[in-house]
Amino acid sequence: MTLQKITNREATAETARRRRYDDACAAAHALDLLGERWALLVVRELMTGPKRFGDLRRDLPGISANVLTQRLAGLEEEGILVRRRLPPPADVPVYELTQWGLEAEPIFQALGRWAARSPSHDPTRPFSAASLVLSMRTMLDAGRATGLDARIGFRLGRETFLARLVDGAIEIAAGPLDGADLVLTGPPAVVAAALYGSVPLRDLEAAGELRLEGDRALADRFVTLFPLPAKAEKAGTAAKRQRAG
């Protein structure tokens, strides 16, 4: 209890001394709100639903308990998230985004699409379940998905999600997998390797990293729906290519 009080006082002090840009530009203020290290990733993890403190620690393995406490306190103070207690039988405290906090998802998606063009972006690095879900919402190619009506389930560690594809749009929510035409079971990074790393599904199955249940033809089509954008050229790259040609 004493340690928790100390941690809470430290979080309050950290919130008070956060540096701000002191700029009337709303984009600058967005950085005041979400620009601290880890803040945006905490928001990302909550975009798929409420989570306990321990869940956030698990899904953000590089963050310390103290820093996570500080970020949660700051985001709560700004009105981006709230802390509440789940009803029985769970009866545990969780953090969840406010409606205003949820409205940050299109911004997050725009950043993701932009940064995916970075020559240094590596889509095979570790992925949390929330990262994978948001990446699918972000990178779906509506043209490739046109005419497809399907339900696809995901078992990602302890979390399950059901995706609904209808006429070029995708909705994904945490919950049971009832009615799924296809279920993919495996770590988020393995599913990401199939979607973005061009690793064949059969290879992942043969290695015992991924399990498919249901419509295999649908699985083969599904992994083609999320093409990554072309990489941006670094300054001077085009000129070097012309000289080489």
Helical fraction: 40-55%
Arrangement of strands in the largest sheet:
5-4-3-6-7
Termini separation comes to: 68 Å
Largest sheet: 5 strands, mixed
User: Structural class, judged by helices and strands?
Assistant: alpha+beta
**SSE string, helices as H and strands as E:** HHHHHEEHHHHEEEEHHEHH
Total helical segments: 13
Task: Give a short summary of the structure.
This protein is of the alpha+beta class. The protein has helices spanning 2-16, 26-34, 39-46, 53-59, 65-77, 99-102, 105-115, 129-139, 142-145, 188-196, 201-206, 216-222, 237-244; strands at 81-85, 93-97, 149-156, 159-166, 169-174, 182-185, 211-214.
Q: Any overview of this molecule?
A:
With 245 residues, the protein is of the alpha+beta class. It folds into two domains: 2-103, Arc Repressor Mutant, subunit A, CATH 1.10.10.10; 109-222, Nonspecific Lipid-transfer Protein, Chain A (2-Layer Sandwich). Helix content is 46%, strand content 16%. The chain has helices at 2-16, 26-34, 39-46, 53-59, 65-77, 99-102, 105-115, 129-139, 142-145, 188-196, 201-206, 216-222, 237-244; strands at residues 81-85, 93-97, 149-156, 159-166, 169-174, 182-185, 211-214. A five-stranded mixed sheet has the order 5-4-3-6-7, covered by helices on one side. Strands 1-2 form a two-stranded antiparallel ribbon. Helix 1 packs across helix 5 and helix 7 (105-115) crosses helix 8 (129-139). The longest helix has 15 residues, at 2-16. It is globular, with a radius of gyration of 20 Å.
List the helices and strands and how they pair.
Blueprint: H1 2-16, H2 26-34, H3 39-46, H4 53-59, H5 65-77, E1 81-85, E2 93-97, H6 99-102, H7 105-115, H8 129-139, H9 142-145, E3 149-156, E4 159-166, E5 169-174, E6 182-185, H10 188-196, H11 201-206, E7 211-214, H12 216-222, H13 237-244
Helix pairs in contact: 1-5, 7-8
